[in-house]
Amino acid sequence: MTDFTVKGLAEQLAAGKITSTEIVKECLARVAARDGEVKAFLEINEANVLAAAAESDARRAAGNILSPYDGIPVGIKDCIAVKGERCSCASKLLEPVKSPFDSTAVARLKKAGFIPFGRLNMDEFAMGSSCENSAFQRTCNPLDTTRVPGGSSGGSAAAVAAGFVPAALGSDTGGSIRQPASFCGITGLKPTYGRISRSGLVAFASSLDQIGPMTQNVEDAAILLDVMAGFDPMDSTSLPNPAGGWADAVRQAGDLKGVRIGLPKEYFATEGLSPAVAKVMEDAVNKVRALGAETVEVSMPHTKYAVAVYYIVATAEASANLARFDGVRYGARAESRDLLESYFRTRGDGFGDEVKRRILLGTYVLSSGYYDAYYLRAQKVRTLIRRDFEEAAKVCDVLMTPVTPAVAFRFGEKSDPLQMYLSDIFTISLNLAGACGVSVPAGKDPESNMPVGVQFMAPALAETRLLQVARSFEKA
Ligand code: GLN
């Protein structure tokens, strides 16, 4: 297979050079050869993916393809429901649960003929930045297996970077698509809040969660966004705005003349920004200038509160969302003498330490007596962070920043939770603002040879501009 991208495979399928069955078998062979080491997948239902490929091939032979992408496999993060498959969120508590329905994102992929391919490992309930919080296995960074792939969509990033699948779905609540994409050297798009329905995405923090594509390039991300975006009656927060046309827009991306790119000074002055990332950013700034963009320094003064605000808002929402996993309504029940003990044992045994930590934090900040001091206050500061984005949008079209302060770290390196939380400093604000952003590979750290991504961010609904700028950058 000469070109393993979504677009490349679509072309080869159209030209009759390959079949869907061949693609799926190639994915399975690649997984068999290397996933024993990388451990990106929790499970692949081989019979199902082969059957779906055979159906796709039959449609193509009959001249009835569902879309040009009919027959292309896409890996699915294990918090996004696929009918009849397990959906465990990498948690022991949900290990036995099979989904009775498709998430809207997956239903739309299927409607275009894409084949959901396997369940990808993640941090338990999407809480984490390294995949180390999975209850089941430790996914490695395929570029250096002593390092983490990032998280929480680490399995998705690793699977794409290792070439197991042409593309994958992730979810991003505070950076979980963009950070692992950066760590693994791929592209990760967090669409505007509400662009892609959350129906069938297991909720972590409902006001922040968003599904998005993780791909080898910007055009593939646009293709998948086109397929999945748009209003869904099953999610009242999904946007009624017209969606689509991004792949076409990306194909027209030229230079950056007339584009104003904002460089938020707080992001570049962050303590802990590694020299390697700083250097890649410097080169990236020069590159966009050479492409004709005008760069402007902007200030986003509330950035320093983002991590604190996020860990109040997200944990508060998580504590409420995860209350349903009690072994009665959902989850693996620990049998006990009475109901109360059953609740305690189900949740005590079923949740990992990080999930428990978040539930405790979230319950605390919502408790009477502390609600005003923490939760209410955090909501107010969230508004200020959103205003930083609105102010910046008055003087620039997109923002350009680092994705992470440093390259992928080694397993166990960030053992203190606070240290781990602080590493999300550059990705979290975007979710709090509800805007859109993308991480694209931009260079390497010469010392570790690990990839470094750059993040572009744009206002809500500005995916066209965002993806065009990202594509121009990627081309150069
Ligand atoms: N790393 C962040 C956290 O642990 C973000 C996770 C995410 O985006 N799902 O919460």
Would you mind describing this structure in some detail?
By secondary structure, this protein is an alpha/beta fold. It has a domain at 6-251: Amidase signature (AS) enzymes (Alpha-Beta Complex). 41% of the residues lie in helices and 12% in strands. It is built from 17 helices and 11 strands. The chain has helices spanning 6-14, 20-38, 46-61, 104-111, 154-161, 178-184, 218-228, 246-251, 265-268, 275-290, 306-321, 339-350, 353-366, 372-395, 417-422, 428-433, 463-475, and strands at 41-43, 73-77, 115-120, 168-171, 187-190, 211-215, 260-264, 294-298, 398-402, 436-444, 451-458. An 11-stranded mixed β-sheet has the order 1-3-2-4-6-5-10-11-9-7-8. Helix 2 packs antiparallel against helix 3 (46-61), helix 5 runs parallel beside helix 6 (178-184) and helix 11 (306-321) packs across helix 14 (372-395). The longest helix has 24 residues, at 372-395. The radius of gyration is 21 Å and the shape is globular. The mean pLDDT is 97. It binds glutamine (GLN). Glutamine is lined by residues 126-129, 152, 172-176, 204, 314, 424.
Basic shape: globular
Which ligands appear in the coordinates? glutamine
Q: Would you tell me the structural class of the helices and strands? A: alpha/beta
Number of strands: 11
What is the end-to-end distance? Answer: 25 Å
CATH-defined topology of one domain: Amidase signature (AS) enzymes
Order of helices and strands: HHEHEHEHEHEEHHEHHEHHHHEHHEEH
CATH class descriptor name of one domain = Alpha Beta
Report Rg: 21 Å
Main sheet: strands, sense, barrel: 11 strands, mixed
- Proportion in helices: 40-55%
> How would you name the CATH homologous superfamily of one domain?
Amidase signature (AS) domain
Overall average pLDDT: 97
Strand order of the largest sheet: 1-3-2-4-6-5-10-11-9-7-8
